[in-house]
Amino acid sequence: MSEPAKIQKIAVPIQRNIERPEFLATRAPSTEFGVVEKPLTTWEKVYNNGTARKIAILILLAVAWEVYGRLLNNSLLFPTFSSVIESLVTGIVSGGLLGKCLFSIKVLLMGYAAGLALAALLTVFAITSRIGRDFLETLTSMFNPLPAIALLPLALLWFGLGTGSLVFVLIHSVVWAVALNTHSGFQSVSNTLRMVGQNYELRGLRYVFAILIPAAFPSILTGLKIGWAFAWRTLIAAELVFGVSSGTGGLGWFIYENKNQLEIPSVFAGLLTVIVIGLLVENFIFRLIEQATVQKWGMQN
After folding, report:
1. Rounded CA gap, 177 and 145, in Å?
2. Is 67 within the bounds of a domain?
3. Which pTM value belongs to this model?
C-alpha cells in the first residue's frame, strides 16, 4: 500500500451557531435586599465631626473650670470661669484689651515674617551646597536649644526699649525651627520625584517650586506651626519684661499690670485671650492651608 493511502482521514466537526433562548430578568424591588446603607444617627453625625468634638472638649473643660472655682471659692487663687468671662468682656469694652491684642499681633507678624525670610535664605543656602548644609546644621545645633527669652537682655542693650527688641527675639524663636524642618523635608524628597523633575528638564526655581516644595510641604507646614507656637509664647513672655521696662506693651503687659493690681480674673482673661488666639490660628488658618495643600494632594488623611 502506498504511503498516502496509509493516511486516515479525520473528520472535523463543523461548528454551527446555536441560538439560545431569550431570558428576561425582572428587577427585584429594593426592599428585598434589606438595608444597603444605614443612615447615620444624629449622635454619629456629631461624633464624626472633628469641630464638634473639639467644641465638646472645650465645653467640658469650661464646666470643670467653673465647678472647681466654685468649690475652691477663692478668686485670688483660682477665679470661676464666669467671672473670667465677665472680666474679658469688660476688658474688651472699656479696658483696651483689643488694642493690646492688635499690638501683640502686629509685632508677632513682623517677627514671624522676618524669621521666615531668614529661614528661607538659610535653607536655600543649605540645599545648594555642602558648606551651606554644614553651616545650617551647626547654627541650628548652637542656637535652637537657646531660649529666645534669654536673649531679651541683650536685645534691650542692642536695640533699646522698642519694638526692635521684641522682633529680634521673635526672629530667633522662628528661624531655627522653620529652617530645620524645611531642610529635613527637602532631604526626604524621594529620588524618583527628583528624576521626574530632571526628565521634565526643570532647573533652578522651577525645579524647587514644582518638585521640592510640594513634596516637602508637610515638613514645611510642621515647621511653620512650630515656629508660630514658639513665636507666640516668646512674645507674651517678652512683653512681660518689656512692659515692665517701658510701661507699654500688648497682652503680656495686660497680664502683668492686672497681676500687680490683684485683678486675678483679668489676669485669667488675658491668658484666655492668648489661648483663644492660638486656637483660632491653629484650627482655622493652618487648617485651611492643610486642606488646600497636603490634604488636597493626598499627602495627609
Report:
1. 10
2. no
3. 0.77
